[in-house]
Amino acid sequence: MLLILTHENADFDAVASQLAVHKLYPQGVPLLSWRVNRNVEQFLTLFWDTLPFMRPSDWQRKRIDRVILVDTQALPSVRGLRPDRAEVQVIDHHGHSEESDESWSYHTKSFGATTTLLVEMLQENGLKPNATEATLLLLGIHEDTGSLVYDTTTANDAQAAAWLLEQGAQLSVVRRFLNIPLSKEQHHLFELLQDAAIWTRIEGQDIIFSAVKAPPDFDDEISAVAHRMRDTLMPTGMILLVELKHNHVQLVGRSSTDNVDISIVAREFGGGGHSRAAAATIMDRDLDEVATRINELLPMIVKPMTKVSKIMSYGLQTISANARVSAAAEQMQRFGHEGYPVIDPDSQQLVGLLTRRLVDRAMNHQLGELPVRQVMRAGRVFVHPSDSVERVQRLMIEEGWGQIPVVADGEKPTERTGLIGIVTRTDLINLLNEPETADSEANLRELMVTALPNAVWDIVQEIGGIAGQMELPLYFVGGLVRDLILGIVPKDLDMVVEGEAITLVRTLSKRFGGDIRSHAKFGTAKWLLNDDVWRRISSQASLEELPMTIDFVSARTEFYSRPTALPEVERGSIKLDLHRRDFSINTLAVRLDGAYLGQLLDFYGGLRDLDSGLIRVLHSLSFVDDPTRILRAVRLEQRLDFSLDPRTAELMAAALEMLDRVTGERVRNELEMCLGETKRIAIMSRLAEIGVLAQIHPGLTWHPQSHDYFYQADRVLADPLWIDALGDDSPIFVYFALLILPLSSTIQGEVMSRLKVRRTTRDDIESAQSLLAIVSNLSENVLPSQVVFALRFYSQRVQLVAAAAVGLDSEAGQSIDRYRREWRHVKTSLNGNDLLNMGLKRGPQVGIILDNLLSARLDGKLVDEPGEREFVQALIKSGEIILEE
């Protein structure tokens, strides 16, 4: 038979889950635990006749073939149940426990309540509860989610609750049984626990630990007391120990944050639960012994606090207290900052904060000439990198500062020495909204170890170690990080330094060798590696696979003085450096220096969009600032098989006309990058679909012929013989020509003029048009000599374009291919000097005769030198050749 079981001290989520499983499997028996919570017992007593539960006292020993275990992963003891002979299925809203049995099956999802998971199963199976059942199910969701306000609550919980209301669940009943008053005995225990409570602060988290002996006559549940303690004292974490009769100690734990994992303590004593709520029944150990062990465990249950250093932006701009408000307004508009720390120019001390709101109000009142000190918010509010994020949050609330300067540990808040960065409301909000991930730092480090060649990983660690010693934050950023996460091995190593990149590269060169190429104006440096450098760094170096340069750039920010203009660049923090990038998936960074190696920075939701497969711009004016991002968006969308975020697609369509203001060179460069992609056909089709090609020029279309040409070009360029025809040229020329060729001559010229195409490219495309007309008219029985004389005066890359256009499977294509492979190598035995020695007069006739000889050789009429001499002698005898007198 099938038995439906849950844990002892069952709450509404446990019992409601049993009910839901019974509706899914009516043949199963939902057997209640020996102990259920008092509010649950009261509900069951009132509605018992309409519910399918069985009391443990009514259970008769039977053979149990299958068990469905809900809201727990610990199998209770039941008469007749032999775990080794029963199939066990777990349905739970907690992840697999460390003691998971491999022979069991698990259906788990991280919802606020197990009931939610089962309600979804009911919906999938088309099963609806009656009003009483819906009310019990709703009680299960509300109790375990704190009426949908606990941090563990998901959208699924809210949707399930809404559906249950539609099925007739009664909120008045839910309120009644969720908020029952404490009994007299429970209230007495509550007072004892409250008096004995000891507050401990660990890693910025406030923990309550209270251990008491219950009154001799106490025989009630403790969980309701724990709820009252939590709601009254509002600690971050709470552990209650209550010694009951016969050396029986009951442990109840509650937590309001994932930073405090209560389940660690419960598991130590054989109990269960999850990080927010856990319990254990401890037998044969006295209260003092258990309390001593819990005090030892307390530091283990708290995750290290998040420090300001994790979310702050290094480097900051300040403004002088004597500066004019109008100058501050200009600076804010230029860089987009919402606030600036204000510095007294004489003492260099921090004296206040100037916000955009204060500046806007002053400007609206025509007070632009006032000094900043007269409108700023005065004060010296600051934090240190080692401070907790909780302190930042508290200061923002108490002081009303939305941007708080960060001062180096042990320093005073002066611009010259102390001020090193800033932390903003946005930083804090991003952290609070950051999805929980399992040890992202370790994962990124492990990912780099796996993805990077051994020698590259060695050099990353060496560079990161030196950067750490120099206190220079160092990062992989943008596309390199994106590709690493997607499993694509990077080809180039580019690093961003929060500080002086050139200083770091000089130190690396001094330590390991290798030349430097630097540009102080731009803060960039290129480290030129050689075999000796690699061997000094890594014994695993296989020099054929390794990059021979690494580019370093100082973190910078940029602003656009007007739409479509090239950005103006200034030094900035890593956060500002990432903010200037095009799409969220290109804003990820991995820190590489010292102890931070592997730390992932995701200020703008890049990881979320990477997981969702979305291309999303960072702000609504992104395409206005730089319309070429439209082509980049499509390129990435097709390369990664992602989708455009709906808002991004909307902004792109609105900004299309801005492409008219972009120079031809910049548009051409982006178009050529699209043509250089493997999925160039999909990209060009998409560019045409959303109107980009037509915006570049009304006559520029994605012609069906170009579609066929591109497929044929892929095949031609897969042949090493044809690749050689390009020499040092890029295959991009071939695809650009094939895009242009189907257009009319007039449109071709206008498109190439708009794109500022180079003269040589224009000439070759015109030549390709001419050659294509010739080869297309070659007859089926064309002679080799006709093919050679048609092609030989055209450049090799023009020949390649023609081959791609007609296709290698066509008669003309096969002829061109044979020319490339065979016929162009055919030579005559005789040369011009030989003909002059035979008495011919110098002049055009020598070339004509040599062409006749070549034609005869190609067509198989002549095969050797004697035959060629005989051919010439015959022409001499016939008088067709003029001899030297």
The average pLDDT value, as a whole number, equals 87
**How many alpha or pi helices?**
39
The helix-and-strand class reads alpha/beta
What's the β-strand tally? 29
Give the percentage of residues in beta strands: 5-15%
Radius of gyration based on Cα positions: 39 Å
**Spans with pLDDT under 50 lasting ≥5 residues?**
436-442, 558-570
Distance N terminus to C terminus?
120 Å
Strand order of the largest sheet: 21-22-23-20-19-26-27
Helix content: 40-55%
Oligomer: single chain
What does this structure look like?
With 885 residues, the protein is α/β, with parallel strands linked by helices. Strands 21-22-23-20-19-26-27 form a 7-stranded mixed β-sheet. The chain has a 6-stranded mixed β-sheet with strand order 6-7-8-9-11-10, with helices on both faces. A 5-stranded parallel β-sheet has the order 2-1-3-4-5, with helices on one face. It is built from 39 helices and 29 strands. Helix 3 packs across helix 5 (155-166).
How would you sum up this structure in a few lines?
By secondary structure, this protein is of the alpha/beta class. The longest helix has 18 residues, at 759-776. The radius of gyration is 39 Å and the shape is elongated.
How does the SSE layout of this entry go?
Layout: E1 2-5, H1 12-24, E2 29-30, H2 38-47, E3 66-70, E4 87-92, E5 105-108, H3 114-124, H4 131-145, H5 155-166, H6 171-178, H7 184-196, E6 198-202, E7 205-213, H8 223-233, E8 237-244, E9 248-255, H9 263-268, E10 272-273, E11 277-283, H10 287-301, H11 308-311, E12 313-314, E13 319-320, H12 325-335, E14 339-343, E15 350-355, H13 356-364, E16 377-378, H14 389-399, E17 403-407, E18 419-424, H15 425-432, H16 440-451, H17 454-469, E19 474-477, H18 479-485, E20 494-497, H19 501-512, E21 515-519, E22 524-528, H20 531-537, E23 549-554, E24 556-559, E25 568-571, H21 574-579, E26 589-591, E27 600-601, H22 606-612, E28 614-615, H23 622-625, H24 629-640, E29 643-644, H25 646-655, H26 664-675, H27 680-689, H28 692-696, H29 704-717, H30 720-723, H31 732-740, H32 745-754, H33 759-776, H34 784-791, H35 796-806, H36 811-821, H37 832-837, H38 844-858, H39 865-878
Parallel strand pairs: 1-2, 1-3, 3-4, 4-5, 7-8, 13-14, 20-23, 28-29
Antiparallel strand pairs: 6-7, 8-9, 9-11, 10-11, 12-18, 14-15, 15-16, 17-18, 19-20, 19-26, 21-22, 22-23, 24-25, 26-27
